[in-house]
Amino acid sequence: MSDKHAEVAGGGFAGLTAGIALARAGWSVRLHEQNDELRDFGAGILLWRNAMLALEVIGVAPAIRAHGVVPDVYATSLNGEMFTPELAGYPYWAITRPKLHELLSDAARAAGVDIRTGSKAVGADPSGALLLADGTRLEADLVIGADGAGSAVRNSLPTLTQERKKYQDGVCRVLVARPEEFAGPEWNRVIDYWTLEPDAMRILFITTGPDTIYMGMMATTSNERASRIPIDPEIWSARFPHLAPVIELAGRATGGRHDAYQTNRVTPWAAGRAVVVGDAAHAMCPALGQGASVGIVNAVELAHTLGQYESVDEGLAAWEAKQRAMTDAAQARSAYMAETRTLAKGNGFTPEVMETANFVLDAATPETIALYPVPEVNR
Ligand SMILES: Cc1cc2nc3c(=O)[nH]c(=O)nc-3n(C[C@H](O)[C@H](O)[C@H](O)COP(=O)(O)OP(=O)(O)OC[C@H]3O[C@@H](n4cnc5c(N)ncnc54)[C@H](O)[C@@H]3O)c2cc1C
Questions:
Q1: How does pLDDT run across 154-171, given as a tens digit for each residue?
Q2: In what residue span(s) does the FAD-binding domain sit (predicted)?
């Protein structure tokens, strides 16, 4: 157990996970969220095996397993042709973002994290202090910037360099009420519908619970109508006529959002006693749905590694040395998949592509690893 104190900026998946992991290791933790309430927006998310193992370490995985859906297969269709379904038996979960966020927020409170909403960070001092917009300076043994891709904490630390890159595609994400005709368990799956001509458009259909379906609708950002929120049913139904009824539902959905694909790669992740985690450190293209999962893994492993060192500085260096290669590979692989749109051709979840999803963090125990066996074909 530790008697150290951490100040965390950002109440997203990475910040909450880091807060829970540190608090469970005996740290006192205060978490600052700039918004007046803790929340994530209303679409869905896939949590891969790497994230589930990390969430086991902090005790949140059983609730995810209870509330999420295990897709029976991942089926890909290009221009109406269906390829061999993949990932049968693979241990990953689909869940709504608000539910995941609620489960993490509850766990953070239960672990004793002091959550301050309406509290905006403007920077960090590497000697160990978080700086707030109201002028407050909060001393800490560790300051965590988990404040997303636009991280103010990261931007205040001149020794952290950042490479940013934008890509050709973007995604509209909406959550729709699950229609009667999709009520059966045979729809608890991921279906990835693509067309590539005259330009790329894709509908990723993911059942996230008994009442909800998450639709990720990808198009090039230059296709203005297909990048609109609310969804423009006419342009999507013209490409995917057989999906017209659910596209209609997507058009009526409230609370959707559009994001262009972009990445940032930060080097190094720490300056003195200040460190960045999650999208603040390594936002990645969502082509493999791994951004939050890698952030969750790194946040849990951060607390685990710090527990092995007396000095925070040494612990941070050891943690980055351990997690960097996996994270860089995940970013590079996601960028490649986004640039080439390789998944459209089906049968894309090769063992190499699955390397990030299969990653086992050091903090995982043999008992929890045994709960998530990987089918031979995906190893
Ligand atoms: C289309 C799309 C699909 C995706 N699908 C998946 C998927 O299926 N699986 C997966 O693992 N990942 C997925 N991702 C990636 C995932 O959404 C992100 O990696 C993840 O949400 C990042 O979490 P975070 O906590 O690092 O940052 P954020 O979610 O950005 O959270 C940052 C938090 O910090 C707060 N904040 C910001 N600035 C300040 C400040 N100055 N002071 C205090 N608080 C502040 C914000 O309000 C927010 O609450 C997807 C991403 C996209 C774009």
A1: 999 999 999 999 999 999
A2: 8-329
**pLDDT for 1:** 65
Q: How many domains does the chain have?
A: 1
Which residues partner with 330 through β-bridges? none
Query: What is the average pLDDT across 344-373?
Result: 97
In the chain, count of helices (H) and strands (E)?
11, 18
Going by CA atoms, what residue is nearest to atom 30 of ligand 1? 148
Would the CB of 11 count as within 6 Å of ligand 1? Answer: yes
Domain annotation covers residue 291:
yes
**Residue-range definition of the domain harbouring residue 144:** 5-165+260-378
- The answer to whether residue 60 is domain-embedded is yes
CB neighbourhood size of 376 (10 A): 8
Closest CA to 307 of 183, 142, 157: 142
Residue 208 is predicted with a pLDDT of 97
Residue 2 confidence class, pLDDT cut points 50, 70, 90: confident
For residue 122, report the distance from its CA to the centre of ligand 1, in Å. 18
Interval between CA 49 and ligand 1 midpoint (Å) = 19
Spacing of C-alpha 253 from chain mean position: 22
Pocket flag, ligand 1, residue 278 (CB < 6 Å): yes
Domain of 315, CATH number, reads 3.50.50.60
Cβ atoms 331, 178 nearer than 8 A: no
Mean pLDDT of the chain: 97
